[in-house]
Amino acid sequence: MRAEILAVGTEILLGNIVNTNAQYIANRLAELGIEVYHHSVVGDNPKRLKEAYDLAFKRSDLVIATGGLGPTKDDLTKEVAFEYFGKEAVLHENLLKNIEEFFKKINMPMGENNRKQALFPKDAIIMPNNNGTAPGCIIEEGNKILAVLPGPPREMKAMFEESLVPYLVKFQDSILVSKTLRIMGMGESKVAEIIDDILENSKNPTVAPYAKEGEVTLRITAKAKDEVKGNELIAPLEREIRNRLGIAVYGEDDSTLEEVLGKILVENILTIATAESCTGGLLAGSIINYPGISSVFKEGFVTYTNESKVERVNVRKETLDRFGAVSSETAAEMAEGAAKAAGADIGLSTTGIAGPGGGTEEKPVGLVYVGLYIKGEVKTKELNLIGNRQRIRNMTVMNTLDWLRRELLKNNVK
């Protein structure tokens, strides 16, 4: 079955709102083994909407339309659909009663224009709306299927799961099972180079790389009769990819870098403190995103000025005078000073030039030094980042967390 998702609404067409409905539906259809071939958006115009239906059904078997089921004159999604299929809409008394009950429940009068939301062809399969006033419907015409869903995501998702999924499962002969590997410290081109033969030759499962801010993801997708068989197909390919990429693979599926690192710290009872200059608290904020981190996170110092570096984390004035705040020497002393001031096993520090101004030829914008203190040993790392101020700060945090993760793994801390 070839599927197409059609979003109806001028506000989406103009970019006033983001079309999250299409993302949700596409993901769920993939899980059901239904392939989506096209996404399209059309404004609230009957002529263009009818053209959109015509084009969609010429190239797809299933069209799922969202939006335009409200009571106003520009809500025309189902009316144009009925006209396209040559079907007459009649009042469904049970639906009208449900709409009236909805307004009674919220203690508001029902407008006369809400009656149109209860108009559907006699042979339409009605999808009730348990979270709003607009029911949806399924129309079967020959070998073509149209499903019309409301636009508000809360209503759309509920109707999709409660009514459309049970309808669609009868068309399933297979499902798609996916697993995502998350990679740090290696660009998309390098990842592709290392697994080039896998990307080229894998048919089932397939492997698709995606570049994200600061990381790369690999989505492994298998087509199988059920989830167990799908995971069996994925497993050997996943092992091969992990073997090739090694420590660069930090997590899978929805895991985040701070979750992976937080779990290591908590399970190994490794206490930590931070001292930040250019990141201004972002590093500490990322670490404490992990639930339960309070058992090991001791303290976070935001030492933005030279004076605070000296007073809070014991950076020597001589170090600042000789090497400057943005230097490996200062980063080292910040990391050690934070750990000792807080009584922690680990100290992490950041100091750099986030811009947009303040850089020099010797120390340009994007130059960052990161310090790491682990139980008596101090290391530093130089980062050369590009982008605006916020990107440089965010990338500093990601690189710092990944560096600590790697150092812990190298020391057999898992």
TrEMBL record:
<dbReference type="Pfam" id="PF02464">
    <property type="entry name" value="CinA"/>
</dbReference>
<comment type="similarity">
    <text>Belongs to the CinA family.</text>
</comment>
<feature type="domain" description="MoaB/Mog">
    <location>
        <begin position="4"/>
        <end position="171"/>
    </location>
</feature>
<protein>
    <recommendedName>
        <fullName>Putative competence-damage inducible protein</fullName>
    </recommendedName>
</protein>
<dbReference type="InterPro" id="IPR008135">
    <property type="entry name" value="Competence-induced_CinA"/>
</dbReference>
<dbReference type="Pfam" id="PF00994">
    <property type="entry name" value="MoCF_biosynth"/>
</dbReference>
<dbReference type="InterPro" id="IPR001453">
    <property type="entry name" value="MoaB/Mog_dom"/>
</dbReference>
<dbReference type="InterPro" id="IPR050101">
    <property type="entry name" value="CinA"/>
</dbReference>
<dbReference type="InterPro" id="IPR008136">
    <property type="entry name" value="CinA_C"/>
</dbReference>
<dbReference type="InterPro" id="IPR041424">
    <property type="entry name" value="CinA_KH"/>
</dbReference>
<dbReference type="InterPro" id="IPR036425">
    <property type="entry name" value="MoaB/Mog-like_dom_sf"/>
</dbReference>
<dbReference type="Pfam" id="PF18146">
    <property type="entry name" value="CinA_KH"/>
</dbReference>
<dbReference type="InterPro" id="IPR036653">
    <property type="entry name" value="CinA-like_C"/>
</dbReference>
